[in-house]
Description:
CATH class: Alpha Beta
Number of domains: 1
Shape: globular
Number of helices: 3
CATH topology: Rossmann fold
CATH architecture: 3-Layer(aba) Sandwich
Helix content: 10-25%
Mean pLDDT: 88
Distance between the termini: 37 Å
Strand order of the largest sheet: 1-9-8-7-4-5-6
Structural class: alpha/beta
Strand content: 25-35%
Bound molecules: guanosine-5'-monophosphate
Number of strands: 11
Amino acid sequence: MASAQPHAKLNLSRRTQPSVQSGERMKILLRRAAIRKRVLAVAREITRDFRGERVHLIGVLKGACIFLSDLIREINLETSIDFMAVASYGKRKESSGQVRLNKDLDSSIAGLNVILVEDILDTGLTLSYLCRILRQRRPKSLKIAALLDKPSRRIKNICADYVGFTIPNEFVVGYGLDYGERYRNLKDICVIEAPRE
Length: 197
Ligand code: 5GP
């Protein structure tokens, strides 16, 4: 398990991060090269753990889509993909504490090695809800791969089997993670330092 690097401070310009509107200052928490390296390492772990078997990756929309698409291309096994969508945060930074299923799986997971792929494990409410639902469907195995883990915020007793980075209690955006649907396209994972007026 890797920890976030010391925070590198950067005032983003349009040239380096074109999607960021002027007036917003960002701090890079995890650079793209570090993310790439960890995604590769997690994919290698999965490849080793499931040697000779098929894995069925379930992405939690929308935040996990970029992590999943990078991860699956580095897994050297037979794979398949499905997606679930849940509502938790909306446009705010704090969870409502309630999880609602907005999109269910397209097909059965009975007898499959399922890896639930999530962008970030925060309070744990989302993943404990999803794991409860998925276990009832009799997969052969069920594991969690989370790009980021914020253990200090945990409410539910849950941990991921594969973790990219353990990070401090900060609200992060980029690499699939949004704030009010913005910033998913940032290549680095950043913290918004000063929101726009
Ligand atoms: P949990 O249910 O574990 O509290 O939260 C899981 C979901 O909350 C994540 O999939 C993500 O959508 C959202 N979330 C939690 N922390 C952050 C964060 O720091 N940044 C962003 N953009 N979303 C977060």
